[in-house]
Design a protein that fits this description.
Layout lengths: L3 E7 L2 E6 L5 E5 L6 H13 L4 H8 L5 H6 L11 E7 L2 E9 L2 H10 L19 E7 L6 E8 L2 E4 L11 E4 L7 H9 L3 H11 L6 E9 L2 E8 L4 E3 L5 H15 L4 E4 L11 H15 L2 E5 L3 H10 L7 E9 L2 E7 L1 H10 L5
Parallel strand pairs: 3-14, 3-15, 9-13, 13-14
Antiparallel strand pairs: 1-2, 1-4, 4-5, 5-6, 6-7, 7-8, 10-11, 11-12, 15-16
Helix pairs in contact: 5-7, 6-7, 8-9
């Protein structure tokens, strides 16, 4: 579990320390404060994959491969090294990302085939950044290095220099479209107990839903919802909000990743289901050893935390993210401080 996390020179963040992370961590603040950049830093650190830059870039709407790697640097300054690190009882785990020289990039291009160019525009834009070099170091383990090179708007990347076990992350980005294929895959991996728990949560949104099933429609995999009146409807006709919640829940229960990351967790949730969602995520964290990171702009979602975590106050951390004089700052609230701020009417968001 991440404990004291530091971000340096990543996207909009020059330097930020997040201390005493808990089992469930909620980030609040104004638009543009850096909340999404924080979540992306967690995902990049946990997945330790060169193609994570492409995935995150596509969700931000970036269609040029060069933009996907240029924009990870604070102020587009390629001379600075990005550093993501976590300090725990075992020591410090670090992921550093730096610009790759032209010669080293050419070596990767010559040796390794192009990565799958999913969603990337075929138009090429010249870039002064030739690629990225990643170094990952865990306590008591050797350094792991791999390189990503940019060539003709596609990525080539080398294999890691050593084997390793990453934390893994299941990330629901605010701009990520709901994926029926991914939802179906996760649903097939659930135990019956977890599947019933998922349906119990969904019934706070759609009381007549009895079960979810994986099937086929027009020779394509689909997820169907069975209703109390005997109807069976494809999930994707029930609304984007419900589809997003189902993807979030199937990922939460079905993924083996240690980090569950949810941007705008309140999206698609009716306020009456928010306390239930918090309690379910807390139970998931406790039973499956997951750490949860999420953002919200909803006052109702924040108020629901007081009810859900009343008997589990040490499991909750709330961080107010703000930009001050060009710097990203984080103010931490534990349960009691947050409750007192709510009662006093202080601007937590």
């Amino acid at each position: 579990m991440l404990k004291d996390f530091t971000i340096e020179n990543y996207r909009s963040i020059k330097h930020l320390q997040l201390k005493d992370l808990r089992a469930v961590n909620v980030f609040v603040g104004k638009n543009g404060a850096g909340k999404t950049s924080i979540l992306e830093a967690f995902s990049l650190f946990a997945r330790v994959s060169p193609l994570e830059h492409q995935r995150l870039g596509e969700w931000r709407g970036l269609m040029q491969a060069s933009q996907m790697i240029e924009t990870v640097f604070h102020d587009l300054d390629f001379t600075k090294t990005i550093l993501l690190s976590d300090r725990s009882e075992e020591g410090i785990t670090k992921l550093s990302i730096a610009a790759l020289s032209r010669a080293d990039a050419q070596g990767v291009i010559n040796r390794y085939p192009v990565a799958e160019p999913t969603g990337i525009s075929e138009l090429e834009e010249p870039s002064e950044l030739f690629g990225l070099i990643h170094n990952y170091k865990e306590p008591k383990y050797p350094n792991i290095e791999w390189r990503l090179a940019l060539h003709r708007n596609h990525f080539h990347f080398s294999n890691p220099s050593n084997t390793f076990n990453s934390l893994g992350s299941f990330y629901i980005h605010a701009r990520r479209p709901s994926s029926i294929n991914e939802t179906a895959r996760m649903l097939t991996e659930l135990s019956r107990l977890d599947e019933q728990h998922l349906v119990d949560i969904l019934q706070h949104l759609e009381p007549d839903i009895q079960s979810l099933r994986v099937g086929y429609s027009h020779e394509q995999v689909n997820v169907f919802a069975d209703f109390a009146d005997g109807k069976r409807l494809p999930l994707n006709v029930l609304g984007d909000g419900l589809s997003r919640v189902v993807l979030m829940l199937t990922g939460a229960f079905g993924s083996k990743s240690k980090l569950l990351i949810i941007d705008e967790i309140d999206s698609g949730l009716h306020y009456s289901a928010m306390a239930t969602m918090w309690k379910s995520l807390l139970k998931l964290s406790q039973e499956h050893d997951r750490q949860i990171f999420c953002t919200t702009h909803s006052e109702e979602m924040l108020q629901a935390t007081l009810e859900a975590f009343e008997n589990h106050q040490d499991d909750l951390g709330i961080y107010r993210i703000a930009r001050q004089s060009g710097e990203t700052k984080a103010q931490k609230y534990d349960y009691e401080l947050y409750r007192d701020a709510e009662i006093a009417g202080f601007p937590v968001r």
